[in-house]
Amino acid sequence: MAKRARIAKLTGHGDYANAVAFSPDGRTLASASDDLTVRLWDVASHRQVGLLKGHTGAVRGVTFTPDGRTLASSGNDGTIRLWDVRTHRPEAVLTGHTATRGIAFAPDGRTLASSGNDRTVRLWDVTGRRPWATLTGHTDAVWSVTFSPDGRMVASAGTDGTVRLWDLDPGARLDRICRMRASLDADARARLLPDVPPPDGVFCDGRG
Question: What PROSITE patterns has UniProt attached to this entry (predicted)?
């Protein structure tokens, strides 16, 4: 396997760095940390260009809207915070989970999915800043969420050892499609494979 050279080492967080995400144009990198902050980095210069403060617990996730104008962060304080990427100012605080883990925007940017220690997945109207659905079924913390490329389904992965696939039509849910031999942890993820129908289109990965 060919070796790849490290381009840069970005330092600034005062504790564990938990998550990273590139902006859609690839110019900005967001990072989340146990130090309660989100930091924005200029990819070309490797310099920190933003420091977002507001979380009162470790920040577990970051993700950009498809247009790159808004950043969402999730934390152990149970909040999801929306930030203006250009001004670095807070736009909204969404509450509902006890501790929020995974977050993901739908491809059209109108819906945000979040997962938490409360065993739920929540769907939020990004424009209205309010939840419009709570998906229940996991029996333990839900670590990760992702949308299908067409935005019609959400997949969630939890420490109950399952990956669940949800139809976004009201009241509909596809049955559980994967069970791990060992529970998922923060290093495990579920992702939908494009152009492959379920269940083969869902890649399940876990330790054990």
Answer: WD_REPEATS_1 (PS00678), WD_REPEATS_2 (PS50082), WD_REPEATS_REGION (PS50294)
| pTM recorded for the entire structure | 0.83
Chain segment 91-105, per-residue pLDDT in tens: 999 998 999 999 999
User: How far is residue 70 from each of residues 110, 140, 196, 199, measured CA to CA in Å?
Assistant: 12, 30, 30, 32
pLDDT one-digit tens code per residue, 57-94: 999 999 999 999 999 999 999 999 999 999 999 999 99
CA-CA distances (angstroms) from residue 62 to 84, 144, 156? 13, 12, 16
**Letter for the amino acid at 174?**
L
